[in-house]
């Protein structure tokens, strides 16, 4: 036990009229929405790395947070776990997520890393058994250490590739042991800075084989969860091989993994790719590879990945609309890959940030559910493509250019443009949010 969150009671639902910053105003986990509770729909998770491992730095300044568990010893790793589960008890969320490097100190070599990981996994497992939340997903940090400066799976050094593969194995074992429902691969440095020293063919082949080995190992150990890939464009690499959903899907198709791997999509990464979050979600769903989400937001003025807690209900509503259309989460959930601002120093700030984000997500989900239940948006979408339901028009897709040309000449077709009614539909969405 720690006294870090001393004086902060477990949060309760107080309703929209509450002015208590340490209470839920819109997230009532037991509230029914359709045939599920809000907790079952949203499947909230707290990210171990930003909440407990991030020191509060930015590109122009170092650490601002002073946490009593900061340091590279097993005693401090256990203290960090104690604090984490105290926050989990306050928030009452059903899941958490971690990288190996978040929960264990870095050792002098792979063997020590593994011993440290196994020891702290046992410690965390005891806390989970005592009533703590479940593990949504585990992953390996293959980007922070200097050995990964040129990537992990795509590194030109075979020894780094081997170290990375072995590390993933230990993290998959840890995820399996803790009953994790997914395993995530995020290639934070799987890309290049310059083509002058890069073999694109070789690095893409390494990335594909690495992912294939992960899938093979999943089946070998009988892991029942999903393998998730989290795409991210640029930052820190100039170009990354997992740029967005469409780019990752091309790699999956090339290596026959499209039925084995799903996507873990992040709002901030979607924006960096020049997309909206709902675009990435809809794309993944259309390709049959939607899995889970990291919920956060970027600062739209700064142009980089600021990982702020979500506070924009209309944005969140459009995201959950696509998630609900896709059937909702199965093994996935809503992980807050979000961090405090470096001036937000107090324990209460960490609690309030999560509480506010959970309220925003609950409001967005309710709006999305109402839109989907009402059906007006889907009716308008169907009406726009109604012409394709006529047999003669549907048959064109299995026809050829000569036959279609003959049809145009025979019918004297001279089509006129039809309004897409974008502003009308935007106004319709705004009725709900």
UniProtKB/TrEMBL annotation:
Binds 2 magnesium ions per subunit. InterPro entries: Xyl_isomerase-like_sf, Xylose_isom_bac, Xylose_isomerase. Gene3D superfamilies: Divalent-metal-dependent TIM barrel enzymes. The active site is at 99, 102. GO terms for molecular function: xylose isomerase activity. Mg(2+) 2 binds at residues 266, 269, 305, 307. It comes from the Bacteria. Its EC number is 5.3.1.5. It catalyses: alpha-D-xylose = alpha-D-xylulofuranose. SUPFAM superfamilies: Xylose isomerase-like (SSF51658). Mg(2+) 1 binds at residues 230, 266, 294, 337. Keywords: Carbohydrate metabolism, Cytoplasm, Isomerase, Magnesium, Metal-binding, Xylose metabolism. It is found in: Cytoplasm. Its cofactor is Mg(2+). Belongs to the xylose isomerase family. Homotetramer. This is Xylose isomerase. It comes from Meridianimarinicoccus marinus. The gene is xylA.
């Amino acid at each position: 036990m720690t006294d870090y969150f001393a004086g902060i009671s477990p949060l309760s639902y107080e309703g929209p009229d509450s002015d208590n910053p340490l209470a839920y105003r819109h997230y009532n986990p037991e509230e029914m929405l359709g045939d599920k509770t809000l907790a079952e729909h949203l499947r909230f998770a707290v990210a171990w790395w930003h909440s407990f491992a991030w020191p509060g730095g930015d590109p122009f300044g170092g650490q601002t947070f002073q946490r009593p568990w900061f340091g590279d010893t097993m005693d401090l790793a256990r203290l960090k776990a104690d604090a984490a589960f105290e926050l989990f008890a306050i928030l009452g969320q059903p899941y958490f997520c971690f990288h190996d490097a978040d929960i264990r100190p870095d050792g002098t070599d792979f063997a020590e890393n593994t011993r440290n990981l196994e020891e702290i996994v046992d410690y965390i497992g005891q806390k989970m058994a005592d009533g703590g939340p479940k593990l949504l997903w585990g992953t390996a940090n293959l980007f922070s250490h200097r050995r990964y400066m040129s990537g992990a799976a795509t590194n030109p050094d075979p020894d780094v590739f081997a170290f990375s593969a072995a590390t993933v194995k230990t993290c998959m074992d840890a995820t399996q042991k803790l009953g994790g429902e997914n395993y995530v691969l995020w290639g934070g440095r799987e890309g290049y800075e310059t083509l002058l020293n890069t073999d694109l063919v070789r690095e893409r082949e390494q990335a594909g084989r690495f992912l294939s080995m992960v899938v093979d190992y999943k089946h070998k150990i009988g892991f029942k969860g999903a393998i998730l890939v989290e795409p991210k464009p640029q930052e820190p690499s100039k170009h990354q091989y997992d740029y967005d959903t469409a780019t990752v899907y091309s790699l999956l198709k090339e290596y026959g993994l499209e039925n084995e791997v799903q996507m873990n999509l992040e709002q901030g990464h979607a924006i960096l790719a020049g997309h909206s979050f709902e675009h990435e979600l809809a794309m993944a769903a259309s390709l049959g590879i939607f899995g889970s989400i990291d919920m956060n937001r970027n600062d739209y003025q700064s142009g980089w990945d600021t990982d702020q807690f979500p506070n924009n209900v209309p944005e969140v509503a459009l995201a959950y609309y696509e998630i609900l259309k896709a059937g909702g989460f199965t093994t996935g959930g809503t992980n807050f890959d979000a961090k405090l601002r470096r001036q937000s120093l107090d324990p209460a700030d960490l609690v309030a940030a999560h509480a506010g984000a959970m309220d925003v997500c609950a409001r967005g989900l309710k709006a999305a559910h109402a839109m989907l239940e009402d059906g007006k948006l889907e009716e308008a979408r169907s009406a726009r493509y109604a012409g394709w339901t006529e047999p003669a028009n549907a048959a064109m897709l299995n026809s050829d250019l000569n036959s279609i040309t003959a049809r145009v000449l025979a019918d004297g077709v001279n089509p006129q443009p039809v309004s897409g009614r974008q502003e009308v539909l935007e106004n319709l969405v705004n009725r709900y949010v």
